[in-house]
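Hello,

Following up on my earlier ticket. Below are the two sequence lines again, exactly as submitted.
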Amino acid sequence: MAIAIQPHTEERIPAVKAFNQRLAAGGIAPEFHFPESNIPCWLPKRDGRRIYQEYYLAVDGENVRGAFILKFQEFSVGGETRTIVYYHLPISEGIVNQAYASVGVFMLRSATKMQPVLFALGMGGFDRPLPTMLKAMGWSLSAVPFYFRVHHPAAFLRQIAGLRQSAGRRALAGIASVTGTGWLGIKALHWLRTKRSVPGVEASAVASFGSWADELWRQCSPLYPLIADRRGDTLNVLYPPGKNFASLRITRGSETLGWAVVLDTQMRHNKYFGNLRVGTLADCLASPENAPAVLQAATRVLEERGVDLIIANHSHAAWGDAFQSAGYLQGPSNFIFAASKPLAEKLTPFETTRNLVYFMRGDGDGPVNL
Amino acid sequence: MAAPLSDRVRRIVADVLDVSVASISPDSSPETVDTWDSVHHLNLVLALEQEFGLQFEPEEIDQMKDMQRILAILGSKVPQG
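Thanks for your patience. The regenerated structure is below:
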């Protein structure tokens, strides 16, 4: 029986459940199982929305042998608006049964044929199977730099000690290798790195993104060669009120400098962060010129809330400088941006442009697992 | 004179899967060769595309479940003199 790519439908729910059961029997953790409902709980396709997800299945007769998600989103590419598609959560039965070793390649080739201008994000590091496959297929890959700032070194060091023997210690161990793990060392590094704060800048929590966000997008989007749509209506879909994140409008006097979406999460036996209270700068927008002020203001909010550690990923070089001037250190990143050949061609020369594209944690699966 | 198609393919399959050419038979498949996993299957597809200067359709990749079918697909795409 030939395998075919088909949209996930209500009739296929039992087959997806059976697929997940076979993955579970093969030892695959639940976070890598495919959503059973055919309607995405995050970003379902609705009338008028410019950002939505669609689920696809690799169907073999009555059975599902693989699945993936396409997230459709508008981007500003060199100042022009076009839809670019995020390829994520590809799962093949080949990971538990070699008889289906061809399904992963089949799905990726099929997705590329359906939507040539694709990207992937995150993926856990260059050495994981998906980035390995993407690289082999000629995609262009780049790590999105990881930045962190330790606010409570004693708590951080306790968690380092606790996680030292665990399999999931990589994130903290990576940070520790940069800081040297000493209390004084951490404090000194952040102090030395922190430039004088920009005066008169204020951060205020907002329930939603209004026309001020549209105006900021209009000003900022031409400054970045590739950036996902961050207009107000899209942001209100991505970051609705009542969730576990806070949306901040950053102003100086009557001028909007930017915005930030932050998370403040008390971790519990988290495999990467133990029991730390972790602040995340999940998303933000400002011109490169105003990046330091926006970062400092968002950092101050998280610091006042009492987080032990603040983390963020950002691909843009000027933002990297801003993170460092706000006292952040750069650690090892396993958050990978991968561009299909047609997308990479729009970013030529990729080796230079990869430092100018605009990707943060909020661009991929959204602020999940944080 | 170029080697027969089957010999060229066996050599590529053996090279990609890191096994001996002698161990590759028409029945060889991901179920019979331990190293024939998803990543190696991709490498095999890409190696064959490079060797023969062609690109497989997704449906053809799906059909490449063993050596015999790989040879059949290549036989229909590669001119043989």
